[in-house]
Amino acid sequence: MQRVVTLKPFSLITPTASIAVDTHGGRAKCLQRLLRLGLPVPDTVALSFETVRRIAAGNLPDMQAVLNACGDRPLVSVRPSSMDPDWGGPRAVLNVGMTEERHAALSGSHGELAATTLYLRFIQSYAVHVARLDPDMFDLPEVPTRAEIERMLRTFREETDEDFPQDPAVQLGEVLRSIARAWEGTTSRLLRQAKGAPADAGLGLVVQEMALGLGPAESGSGVVQFVDGSTGERRVEGRYLRQGQGRDAVLGSPGAARIACDPNGQSLEDLCPDILRQLVEHGHTCRKSLREEMQIEFTIESSRLRILDAVRVARNSRAALRIAVSLANDGIVSPDEAVLRIDPRALTELLHPQVSVDAPRDVVARGIAASPGAATGRIVFSSTAAQASAAGGEACILVRRETAPEDIRGMHAAAGVLTERGGQTSHAAVIARGIGLPCIVGTSGIKIRQRQGSLVLEDGRRFSEGDLITLDGATGEVLAGAVDMVGPTLDDSFKTLLGWADEARDMGIRANADTPAEARVASRFEAQGIGLCRTEHMFYEDDRLTVMREMIFAKSSEDRQATLDQLLPMQRADFVELFEIMQGKPVCIRLFDPPLHEFLPSAREDQRALAESLDLPIAEVTSRVEQLSEFNPMLGMRGVRLGVTVPEIYDMQARAIFEATIAASHSGAPVVPEVMIPLVSARREVEIVKTRIDAVAAAVRVETGENLDYRLGVMVETPRACLRAHEIAAHSAFLSFGTNDLTQMTYGLSRDDAGRFMSDYVNQGVFLEDPFHILDVDGVGELLVLGATRGRQTSPGITLSVCGEHGGNVESIEFCRDAGFDYVSCSPFRVPVARLAAAHLALRRRKVT
Amino acid sequence: MQRVVTLKPFSLITPTASIAVDTHGGRAKCLQRLLRLGLPVPDTVALSFETVRRIAAGNLPDMQAVLNACGDRPLVSVRPSSMDPDWGGPRAVLNVGMTEERHAALSGSHGELAATTLYLRFIQSYAVHVARLDPDMFDLPEVPTRAEIERMLRTFREETDEDFPQDPAVQLGEVLRSIARAWEGTTSRLLRQAKGAPADAGLGLVVQEMALGLGPAESGSGVVQFVDGSTGERRVEGRYLRQGQGRDAVLGSPGAARIACDPNGQSLEDLCPDILRQLVEHGHTCRKSLREEMQIEFTIESSRLRILDAVRVARNSRAALRIAVSLANDGIVSPDEAVLRIDPRALTELLHPQVSVDAPRDVVARGIAASPGAATGRIVFSSTAAQASAAGGEACILVRRETAPEDIRGMHAAAGVLTERGGQTSHAAVIARGIGLPCIVGTSGIKIRQRQGSLVLEDGRRFSEGDLITLDGATGEVLAGAVDMVGPTLDDSFKTLLGWADEARDMGIRANADTPAEARVASRFEAQGIGLCRTEHMFYEDDRLTVMREMIFAKSSEDRQATLDQLLPMQRADFVELFEIMQGKPVCIRLFDPPLHEFLPSAREDQRALAESLDLPIAEVTSRVEQLSEFNPMLGMRGVRLGVTVPEIYDMQARAIFEATIAASHSGAPVVPEVMIPLVSARREVEIVKTRIDAVAAAVRVETGENLDYRLGVMVETPRACLRAHEIAAHSAFLSFGTNDLTQMTYGLSRDDAGRFMSDYVNQGVFLEDPFHILDVDGVGELLVLGATRGRQTSPGITLSVCGEHGGNVESIEFCRDAGFDYVSCSPFRVPVARLAAAHLALRRRKVT
Predict the structure, then answer these.
(1) How far lies A202's CA from each of A22, A44, A83, A104, B65, in Å?
(2) Phi/psi of residue B257, nearest 5 degrees
(3) pLDDT over 70 at B405, yes or no
(4) Residue A433: its pLDDT value, please?
(5) Fewer CB within 10 Å: N-end or C-end of chain A?
(6) Would an 8 Å CB–CB cutoff place A766 in contact with chain B?
(7) What pLDDT band is residue A4 in, cutting at 50, 70 and 90?
(8) Alpha helices (runs of H) in B57-167, residue ranges in sequence order
(9) Which of A645, A753, A779 sits opposite B757 (nearest CB)?
(10) Residue B650's beta-bridge partner residues?
């Protein structure tokens, strides 16, 4: 049976009154807490959501009773109190109760100037916000005079055909009704729903006796907080305005002074050091008891401090992190709670430089924000130019129609990447996120005139090679020139918090890392291993590319073998380095995956050069290129299909891995490499590759006389591999789900080509989100669960993981944890986010159970 | 509890003896049947599988008892009797029992020449097949003499160190043992397993008293049948050899005579008309009672007819069909049984011309047999040349590296297509099957030198444009020059049988037909409608292509609309024609599917021409082509993705369909068109397209003032559409599963690129079959079942079908029927096969239940 609670229409807030956030709103509750802490809060009455709803419907409670409850003071303020301050709401109305009679009385007690000022302010506020009259007619005068009062009252009468109400109870009633109705209005409702409020979100109101802040002796108002909202460092800051009311001090009032001591001697500390001492004490009390850094709104009325309100200090991610850690270090909150207080997504901006919030922005183009961070550099149009620029110590931005594997070295050399085409998971985007490079893709408004070395924008502006631009990878905006930046923050607080996160989480986090540089980042961010090491980039370096091409032109298995033998020592050295960096942590190496034609030049002149270097007729080169070219390379002769039909490549790679294992185990921690077969769609593919790789391992054991252990597994990235996971698992130590390719195949959607219509699709709600960005739980997700369940059926102890781009995504991590995956692997720069997100999940589930 | 049946080691075959095919083999059973029919079969003893197994193991039953059971005749023959005659087996051994003593006796009764001939034959047969001596040492002499007998007996003694056995019981024992062991040998076992025999297939043997066929009065042997094995027409044919034994008459003996009257007066009819009359009578008896056309093996011994054996007449598909229909028409078998007697696969060869079996074959290359039938024509290397050749009335073979949509008109003009690249489901293969054109793809050994207008083969031979070649689409062989052909057969029997099949089947069969020509074939083959009409080909015709290109270059929705308005009347005419041909049967029209770049020229010179015709700078053309080009067109901006982002195309098509519906309904049967949305992966795609198409229908209703009905459905070809079928079905009247694309996406395998390694994959057993050829029941099949089940969950009455290439495949039809699909749709030329296959399934299931 539902319990019906009948609330009083209004309650004076006392330490024991029945006030709750979900009946009276956050402000009312906070004021009660301040009262309980003994802070000098003026008498305040709270009106419940229910009461405000009735007021909107026309049922006013007894206004005089409300006024009486607010004590014997002549004036009151009305402030909104919703469940969540972020939902917005009507503005506060001050000085309710100002009438001719009160004006006369206040002129006596506080002086005519103060009384006139308050009266004018209230008339204006009431006329504009309650009577909804034209604000231009109620401008406040420079000098408050009786004549101005008369003018405003007359205007009010003319516009409304009524006299300005002179009964405080009537005034309060009209103010409350106006606010209550504004909250129910469509505009407000849509606005707050956009911020996550439920459709039936209620509004409470607080009616508080006014502490005037104007008048004789030291009077004024201000805000103070005890922490820096942008760094999280503890220090007193705020603004104080003599003869000010409400938030006047922070609303850009030029007369406002600092709180703490300043050179002009005009700060609050200078003016009333005792009051500052009281404030600091209140601040300490709040921090400890409310377990949060609060900003306090106060008024000094004739040298007497009154605390009107306190709200959570606004802060950026960096400050939030430091505040949480500091609260935990001081024993005020638990480390777990500190962890939960930081949104994992917010970590991203700490890991990269950002365009300064205050910097002027000359936006010249907009694209898809594909990799976070900001970078300034000179425009280059080719990877060669990027490398030249880097060699000359000049930061550059690589601008391309789209990038291809040949551009990797250029990308490594650049400070940022801008492409005309592509989506969230285009080559440029994926690689950029992998190496932590700011990147904007799908900038469809720009036109690259590579030959003329220029970049034409939608508005006709033209940039040339060498011109400075700035990429804001957080917003997807391209800015002209150099722009002020703020640097990344990896301070002790960061490390402490992530340490606590690691203690809380119950799911592994690895990094996708292909190069020693990436592996070092992974290690620095304390990934628990490498979940995906793509090996193909290792074949693009100049000396290796030549050998690769020789292999492609080999006429027999023996010739192929012979050319691959030249690559063996290089591959071995690659792996030794990775194993050493990862110090015995698991490294999962994906065997060669791309189609061979990616290694052949497509331009005629490059083909001629290749023909020369291989001493072949150009016709032979051209014909081989044509032979190998594919309609849909994504779905072609790559991955395990190469492994089965040209087995020499995998043989060489397996040997390199095993020899490196032995070498690295000599010089450091013992290594158990993980070897992963890509693009599997049938059990037999695994059997065939496994047989050969086991044979290579056996041969290496015999040749070296050393023992050698390894784990062979499968990258599950075709729908069929998910469906047949029970068969495939029988031969696999692990299944790692490649959600990029799996998403492509499940949707029948190439990530490289989807960029062109993805925004249309998301805008029209065809896809709620870009499925390459946010895991498609309904479709791809079902295949993941199906694959995981079937895999565990055959092989209960099998390791399950996700190694696609989604691995670093908060929603996807939750999905994977629920599906019982052992770990996720993501871009090295996403590792902290993933560690924190996993901790959140574990902590929240622990709370629930 | 298993019942143990103890069989006698041997049984004299009598009408009531316990003889069964699965214990004694087919020949023993057939002989019993002949006896029951009162045919003059010599005494015969049947040895069971079990007995023969024991003989192989060394346990001989009492041989004298066997001989005694065979009656009082001096000689016996031994013949194999396995469960299925196709499994092969040891050869027959005749004249067992010939000894010196029998020789003397026979010389008296049948003359010395006959006796000596029989003795020599037996010694030879025993020495070679039982004692396994060198056949060269036992050649039969031209003239049989006593000296030859002595020579052979001496050779036997020298080679075996034993005398030739003179005890008939010993001879028989050795013969049986030898045959029994041969059956158990590895070679025989592998051979018969390759033909489908189980590992433990048994062999029975029949020992029959010899009717000699040699000797005084009219003596000889022959075979006779009463139907033509290659046409199925009823007539007496066979061979008879005087003084011959066993199958001498048919083993190419030059003295053999015809059975029926011949000009030389030497036929059996001429020699012994009475015996022929008996044979004809026996033939009638057999046909009626054994319900089959039998070939009878007979011997005439001193003018007395003996029937040694009868076997099913060997026949080709055409004859098989006519025989089955004739048996049913004569009331001997039921129409259902006639239907079941014809293998659906066998129909294929009836629908196309074939290379004559006897024609000499100069095979110059081998590829994948992608579309059946044979064609001879002059080599052309381009679609233009093909059209020119066709215009000149000269049959041509279009030879291409691979075909593209631009080649469609060339393919229509050609008599056959040969491509270097591609697999069973490459563009060339699919289109060729669709239009019933012989086609060979993946002919990797050939090299096309398009510029020089020549074709170089693996062996270095060179063909030039204009040279004659022949494609054998049944074998995948390319033959030099023109070759003799036999024509297709669509006679009354064919129609009758398929009529019976239609009565039996419980599943619909439609055809995939894009053009009026294909629709006419579909109609001729009595498809129940068009299951898939691809509309894109309609945009490739010259005048339309230009308009298409203008549309692609349109700068606004209005411009696009205006160019599409030009296509509207043409599309409408297309549909009117299709509706008229199909006479009110359902026509399922797939909305525009291919990526737009397929309509733009890729060659520089063609781009220039386009720029001229559109009056645009070439740079704009080039840049648009580049902009639209895709990495993986298969997974790109096509299908419903175009429908959502460039909705004007679907609007135009919908209008054309609806206007055509009204026009065609005026002139003929009422039409309810089916409109199908391709490449769906999300519910919302369907909603968006449905809203627009419903609006077009409403507009057409208002404009014409006529009623108009239509069904909107979805082509399910992405794994995600299968997984979300319950959502998609809510907005669909039907779901048609496109198994081509679904297979591509489930495997992550492009059908256009798979050809390169598919044969490797099938050879290594990675895939048991090419999944584009035979439906992958395990993976793709699971998605089909899942999609069907979920679709029916939401929408129990929804129509389910398969419209991929698999639709015409016998195994796939079975799968679809089991999964509860309403119909399958396949190439028009596969429709008869599908109708028959569906009938088989229905009849078999009816038998089971």
Answers:
(1) 8, 19, 8, 38, 108
(2) -110, 165
(3) no
(4) 75
(5) N
(6) yes
(7) very low
(8) 63-69, 100-110, 112-125, 146-160
(9) A645
(10) none
Helices assigned H by DSSP within B291-421: 317-329, 335-341, 344-347, 383-391, 408-413
pLDDT more than 70, % of chain B: 97
Position of tokens 């041997």? B10
The answer to whether the beta carbons of residues A466 and A386 sit under 8 Å apart is no
To which residue do tokens 């296509």 refer? B567
Interface membership of B637 toward A (CB under 8 Å): yes
Average pLDDT, chain A: 90
Write the ipTM.
0.79
- A761, two tokens: 């699709």
- The CA distance from A22 to the nearest CA of chain B, in Å, is 37
For A47, the 3-state DSSP assignment is strand
Question: Which of A116-125, A621-630, B220-229 shows the lowest per-residue confidence on average (mean pLDDT)?
Answer: A621-630
Considering only the beta carbons, identify the residue of A626, A718, A723 that sits closest to B748: A718
Please confirm, yes or no, whether A803 is among the known catalytic residues: yes
Of B748, B756, B780, the CB nearest to A635: B748
Task: Give how far A828 is from chain B: nearest CA, Å.
Answer: 27
> Over the stretch B763-777, which tens digit does the pLDDT of each residue have?
788 888 788 878 999
pLDDT, tens digit, 9 for 90 and up, residues A261-285: 777 778 888 889 999 999 999 999 9
Is A744 part of the contact surface with chain B (CB cutoff 8 Å)?
Answer: yes
Q: Which residues pair with A398 in a beta bridge?
A: A380, A417
The model's pTM: 0.79
pLDDT band (50, 70, 90) for residue A801? very high
Chain B closest-CA separation from residue A44 CA (Å): 52
Residue B229 reports pLDDT greater than 70:
yes
* pLDDT tens digits along A140-172: 898 899 999 999 999 999 999 999 999 999 999
Q: Tell me, yes or no, if B477 comes closer than 8 A to chain A by beta carbon.
A: no
**What are the structure tokens assigned to A807, written together?**
């691995």
If we measure between CA atoms, which residue out of A431, A451, A452 comes closest to residue A441? Answer: A431
Rg over alpha carbons for chain A, rounded to the nearest Å, is 34
| Bridge partners for A299 per DSSP | A221, A306
Using only C-alpha atoms, chain B has a radius of gyration, in whole angstroms, of 34
How far is residue A37 from each of residues A127, A210, A264, measured CA to CA in Å?
A: 38, 20, 34
Tokens representing residue B822 in the block: 């309403």
In 3-state terms, what secondary structure has residue A247?
Answer: coil
CB–CB of A779 and B681 under 8 A?
yes
Does residue B4 carry a pLDDT above 50?
Answer: no
Q: Decide: helix, strand or coil at residue A591.
A: coil
Q: What is the pLDDT of residue B2?
A: 45
Residue B252 is predicted with a pLDDT of: 59
Other C-beta atoms closer than 10 Å to the C-beta of B247 total 18
Q: CA torsion angle for A155, A156, A160, A162 (degrees, to 10)?
A: -110
Strand A454-456 and strand A462-464: the pairing is antiparallel
Distances (CA, A) of A837 to A62, A502, A521: 50, 10, 19
> To which residue do tokens 């982002």 refer?
B645
How far apart CA A560 and CA A658 sit, in angstroms, is: 20
Collapsed DSSP state (helix, strand, coil) of residue B637 = coil
Q: What is the 3-state secondary structure (H, E, C) of B179-214?
A: HHHHHHCHHHHHHHHHCCCCCCCCEEEEEEECCCCC
pLDDT over 60 at B589, yes or no? yes
pLDDT reported for residue A2? 45
Nearest to residue A243, comparing CAs of A252, A235, A253? A253
Residue of A70, A286, A533, A803 marked catalytic: A803
Choose between A490 and A824: higher pLDDT: A824
Query: What is the maximum span of chain B, computed from C-alpha positions, in angstroms?
Result: 108
Distance of CA A833 to CAs A495, A497, A662, A814, B64, Å? 12, 12, 34, 13, 93
pLDDT at residue B349 is higher than 80: no
